[in-house]
Write a structure and sequence with these properties.
The complex is a heterodimer of chains A (409) and B (333).
Chain A lengths: L10 H36 L20 E7 L4 H12 L12 E6 L3 H9 L5 E4 L5 H6 L4 E15 L9 E2 L1 H9 L8 H5 L12 E5 L4 H13 L1 H6 L12 E3 L2 H10 L3 E6 H7 L4 E2 L1 E3 L5 E2 L3 H9 L28 E9 L2 H4 L6 H15 L16 H13 L1 E2 L2 E2 L4
Parallel strand pairs in A: 1-2, 1-3, 5-10, 6-7, 6-8
Antiparallel strand pairs in A: 3-12, 4-8, 4-9, 4-12, 10-11, 13-14
Chain B lengths: L20 H31 L1 H7 L2 H4 L18 H32 L2 H16 L2 H27 L22 H25 L3 H9 L4 H30 L2 H6 L17 H8 L5 H31 L9
Helix pairs in contact in B: 1-12, 2-12, 4-7, 4-9, 5-7, 6-7, 7-9, 8-9, 9-12, 11-12
The chains are: A alpha/beta (409), B mainly alpha (333).
Chain lengths: 409, 333
């Protein structure tokens, strides 16, 4: 007789199943205990049980009240912001309402989502790679201040067999690739500007962001400036109707896809491109002065330093960009990244943000625009020049609480 | 309390005139809970319709077969939303997932109930059910790091060079213009198949185990072989349960988000080739929702409404198929 199905009324099978059950029970118990221990261990390291605060003095004399703040937005600035929030949490603060540090929670949900969260008053600070558009401004319930907190480069990365880093590309060529007009790497336009390089015949796989992104905004602003067809049919925004190509999620998604797909091209921030190392090549892009520039912190700093006039903090920054700045050694695809804060933290949040939180917030903002900039270069961000620091100081001084000024430093 | 024997046309439960208070309360509480859940579903539908009203009014039925989703109007490109590529991708990827996953699940269930040695049964079923415990994002990352390169270098070229020449289906296995890179409908379908296997096989196994021994023994006593006895006695009896399992798996396949986002290539276009990148409704909503301004949000919620409708239609069709199948399982309502 063939082996009958288990779960029958057979006595022996029932007892065997019971015994099997007790073994599985023990295995289950052991697994659960291990998981609990692991979670508690991780929690201990995360400070759930109160870590000893290694506070260093803020250095400039003003100690803010301890508080918990929220910020959300740009993924571009996230690596730098993570360093900032961790460092600032180690700074001295006056214990207040049960808080022992200034804890800033930053969520890298994307530039547009950050501004939407700010509009919905879910966060204290919104971070965006694109200045507020007119639609976003009209959606905001109260006046905001805009302050650049960092700058970086959008690099063009590629993966062509036997072609090393440093391929020359121009804006029109990149636009043509992203429009789908150029489909092979050994197109005459590309080979003409790369005389010493032997480019094989390789189909181009275009990679772009699938999620909305300020990096996309900077890149598409550049393409709009370089190609009128792009400007008229696709435009510049955080989220586009791409004519061609595949979408990857996140900056690391694009970098990873280019690294693993032969013949691909993508755009990404400098830090993500550098992290891929030899897996991707980084292109030299033609700047308005006529030179092919490799994106580095120094070249991008030249672009940032070339800007001399800025809108007022509460003014209209729509359309402000540092694309194609003049200068012999400036990298053309440079972008600032901004923080947006409500001008009056008391009335904007109808009291749900306390005075202590407002104090802590402006202290944090002051710190990141001064001491915090020392962390920028190591992470491939451009430290703010004095011109922009001055703009930020004006912006921070504009932030008030129910009309009363706040101490930031 | 005696119940009357089951006969056609007679109410199953003969109600006595008096029932204990506890029984009544129990009935009301469970009834209320059920109504709450049903009410929640109705509420979701109502909210979806309400929130997507701007785009319903702006685009009407054209939304269903529009192929362009442009959230950024320019001088040449108007603001327009169309759902067809997302609907197409959702159905295609779910279909691939089912075609690959259902036979495997049925085979696994059969193996675990009938054919496997008793000692292996416990560990094997435990391991397969562990697959269901793996988070979707881990599946997506695994797919990106491991499956996509395998598809790009081995599976897709193989299928393209063999099936790509067979007359009728050549289009489905055509090589994309920029070469095989592994991101596409097929890869997403494979991951979905892996994700639905634990669900479908676990429930199917329970359905098979619920078949009374007498059915199987009756078939065997008539001289059926092992496979024939399973086919004659187990399958018709377990039909409902198996269909329920498949419907659940299909629900998961149609709604799966992050795993699909990471491997499907996120291109808002319709393509006949299985190797081409595309998008699904859930994946597109996940990608766009964070950055969307109000009008686009309405469009995305309308996409969600369409997804709900698609799931509903699939469920109804599945039930109709069972009813038309004729044989009603003994003992089920």
């Amino acid at each position: 007789m063939p082996n009958a199905a288990s779960g029958s009324t057979d006595e022996g099978a029932y007892l065997r199943k019971q015994k099997g059950r007790s073994t599985m029970t023990w295995v289950g118990v052991i697994v659960v205990v291990i998981v609990i221990i692991a979670v508690l261990g991780a929690g201990f390291y995360a400070g759930w049980f109160g870590k000893s605060s290694t506070s260093t003095s803020g250095g400039s004399g003003y100690t803010p009240p301890c508080a918990s703040l929220t910020a959300a937005g740009s993924t571009f600035v996230y690596p730098l912001m993570a360093v900032w929030t961790t460092s600032y949490a180690g700074m001295a603060c006056n214990a207040n309402a049960g808080f022992s540090q200034v804890q800033v929670n930053y969520q890298a949900v994307g530039s547009g989502a950050g501004i939407t969260d700010l509009t919905d008053k879910l966060v204290d600070v919104g971070a965006s790679d694109a200045p507020l558009s007119s639609a976003q401004i009209s959606a905001l319930p109260a006046q905001t201040v805009t302050m650049p907190d960092s700058a970086g480069a959008v690099t063009i990365i590629y993966n062509i067999p036997k072609v090393t880093t440093g391929l020359n590309l121009t804006g029109p060529i990149i636009a043509a690739i992203y429009l789908g007009d150029i489909t092979n790497w050994n197109n005459s336009a590309i080979t003409a500007i790369n005389p010493g390089v032997s480019i094989p015949s390789q189909a181009i796989t275009v990679e772009h962001r699938s999620d909305g992104s300020g990096t996309t905004f900077a890149f598409s602003s550049y393409l709009s400036a370089e190609n009128s067809t792009w400007k008229n049919s696709v435009g510049a925004a955080t989220s586009l109707n791409w004519p061609t190509g595949q979408g990857q999620k996140g900056s690391e998604g694009v970098a990873g896809a280019v690294a693993s797909t032969t013949g691909s091209i993508g755009y990404d921030e400098l830090n993500y491109a550098e992290e891929e190392g030899v897996n991707v090549g980084i292109a030299k892009v033609l700047n308005p002065a006529g030179s092919y520039i490799m994106p580095t912190v120094a070249d991008t700093a030249s672009a940032v330093a070339a800007v001399t006039s800025f809108p007022a903090p509460t003014g209209n920054w729509t359309g402000f960009s540092i694309i194609n700045e003049p200068g012999a050694g400036t990298y053309p695809i440079a972008t600032l990244t901004y923080l947006m804060i409500y001008e009056d933290l008391g009335s904007a949040y109808s009291g749900s943000v306390t005075q202590a939180q407002a104090q802590a917030l402006v202290s944090f903002l002051w710190w990141i625009t001064h001491t915090g900039q020392q962390s920028a270069t190591g992470l491939f961000y451009v430290p703010l020049p004095s011109a922009i620091t001055a703009v930020d100081e004006t912006a921070i001084n504009e932030i008030v609480y129910n009309g009363a000024a706040l101490t930031s430093h | 309390m005696e119940t009357a024997p089951v006969a056609e046309g007679v109410s199953r439960r003969a109600r006595p005139k008096y029932r204990a208070l506890g029984d009544q309360l129990f009935q009301y509480i469970t009834g209320a809970t059920t109504l709450v859940v049903v009410g929640l579903f109705v509420l979701i539908v109502v909210i979806l319709i309400q929130a997507s009203e701007p785009t319903i009014r702006a685009f009407g039925l054209g939304f269903l077969w529009g192929q362009v989703w442009n959230p950024n109007p320019t001088t040449l490109s108007p603001l327009v939303f169309g759902a067809l590529p997302a609907i197409y991708g959702t159905l295609l990827v779910a279909a691939i997932g089912m075609v690959l996953g259902v036979p495997l699940s049925l085979g696994i269930a059969m193996f675990l109930t009938e054919l496997s040695p008793g000692l292996l049964r416990g560990p094997l079923s435990f391991t397969i059910e562990l697959l269901a415990a793996i988070p979707s994002v881990v599946y997506g990352l695994w797919g990106r790091l491991i499956l996509v390169p395998i598809m790009a270098t081995t599976v897709e070229p193989f299928l393209g060079s063999t099936l790509g020449h067979v007359p009728v289906i050549a289009g489905a296995f055509a090589e994309p213009a920029s070469g095989y890179n592994g991101y596409g409908y097929l890869t997403a379908g494979v991951i979905l198949a892996i994700m639905v296997i634990p669900t479908i096989s676990a429930i199917t196994r329970e359905a098979f185990l619920a078949v009374p021994r007498e059915q199987r023994e009756a078939a065997l006593s008539l001289g059926a072989t092992g496979w024939e006895s399973t086919r004659l006695s187990v399958f018709p009896y377990a039909r409902r349960g198996v269909l329920g399992a498949i419907t659940l798996g299909l629900g998961r396949a149609v709604g799966e988000t992050i795993a699909v986002v990471l491997v499907i290539g996120n291109t808002y276009a319709i393509s006949g080739s299985l190797f081409a990148p595309g998008t699904t409704i859930a994946a597109y909503i996940a990608n766009e929702f964070g950055e969307a301004l109000t009008f686009e949000k309405a469009g995305l919620l309308e996409l969600g409404l369409i997804l709900l409708a698609v799931s509903l239609v699939i469920n109804i069709v599945a039930r109709l198929l069972v009813r038309r199948g004729g044989l009603r399982a003994v003992g089920s309502p």
